[in-house]
Amino acid sequence: MFGDNHLSPLILLNVLGIAGICVWHLQGRGRPTSRLIVQIQFFVGMSLVLFIAGIPPNRVDFIHTQGLAVLLARLAGVLWWTHLAWTVIGFIDIYVRLNHKPREAHLIQDMAVAVIYLGAALSIVRFVFGMPLGTLVTTSGVVAVIFGLALQNTLGDVFAGIALTLGRAYMLGDWIRLSDGTEGRVTETNWRSTNLLTGANNIVVLPNSILARQGVTNLSRPDETHLITLSVRIASTQRPRFVEDVLRSVLEASTHIAGAPPPAVALKNIDAIAIEAELQFRVDSLSAGMKAKNEIVELIYCHCKLNGLSLAMPPGTVPPQAEAR
Questions:
Q1: pLDDT category, 60, cuts 50, 70, 90?
Q2: pLDDT, mean of residues 205-230
Q3: β-pair partners for 195
């Protein structure tokens, strides 16, 4: 029986619940640990009051009171389930932060929070107000089908975003390239889209469903270093080994390329006119690629001139003397 003797614990429950909500909002999102500690304290306090008063939070059908006690009992039940949901969400938030991946796990965390709130709402409907869930679930299913048909494109983006997050094809801060040639650094990923910051300092917003259908090359894994190749044609007036040594000295003189793995010179082809070589080197990041390549071009010119090497014309080019004739 839930008589007037229970008014004091009911009032205390409501006071604790409302005070917990106020403190929860005052703590703010910037202090997740202290927010969780305070939330646990209020939740434990409310649970102790329920236990001491002999009030089970998951049963209301045995309550036979009228007037104010009914209102206080139901409000206390709503507050208890709400604080339970917030406590679980707080633990999830702390777990994500301790793993140092709060932004990468943001979609999964949002999905877990939505499930927790849904579970708390259904528990309140069933255990606090004593309403059958069968009719509610059936009605919700019909509404879900209607919304699903109306929002199928948006839902496609949502599920594609979840799949991309679970697959971990990229993370925030990674530089990626799509099969259509679009490339940029991932600056944001949410339920609907992924934002890329391109080299031209523009933000490209890509719906997740489109991104999932394209091939994605992650240029930031396994590390930020990036391979650059540069082809050069040297007139075949010297031995290939000498040409190789000169081009290797070019790479050794560079200050903008990465030392590991070491750069290499590959002799690709030779004919009566030119020796074709390819310089292979890595830079620490994509942003350093242009500066390194410019430096290599300058060094090739200087070292070739110093060692008596001449650059050969591209294949198929008509020499100026032939054009004059």
A1: very low
A2: 79
A3: 188, 205
Under 8 Å between Cβ of 73 and 130: no
Give the CATH number of domain 226-306; options: 3.40.50.1820, 3.80.10.10, 2.60.40.420, 3.30.70.100.
Answer: 3.30.70.100
Give me the CATH topology for the region 167-218: SH3 type barrels. (2.30.30)
274-283 and 264-270 strand pairing = antiparallel
Q: Is the pLDDT of residue 325 over 70?
A: no
High-pLDDT (> 90) share of the chain, %: 4
Please tell me the pTM assigned to this model. Answer: 0.48
Which three-class secondary structure string do you get for the chain?
Answer: CCCHHHHHHHHHHHHHHHHHHHHHHHHCCCCHHHHHHHHHHHHHHHHHHHHHHCCCCCCCCCCCCCCHHHHHHHHHHHHHHHHHHHHHHHHHHHHHHHCCCCCCCHHHHHHHHHHHHHHHHHHHHHHHCCCCHHHHHHHHHHHHHHHHHHCHHHHHHHHHHHHHHHHCCCCCCCEEEECCCCEEEEEEECCCEEEEECCCCCEEEEEHHHHHHCCEEECCCCCCCEEEEEEEEEECCCCHHHHHHHHHHHHHHCCCCCCCCCCEEEEEEECCCEEEEEEEEEECCHHHHHHHHHHHHHHHHHHHHHCCCCECCCCCCCCHHHHHC
Report, as an integer, the average pLDDT of 78-95: 82
If you average pLDDT over every residue of the chain, what do you get?
76
Instruction: Tell me: pLDDT of 138 over 50.
Output: yes
Judge whether 282 and 288 are in contact, CB under 8 Å: no
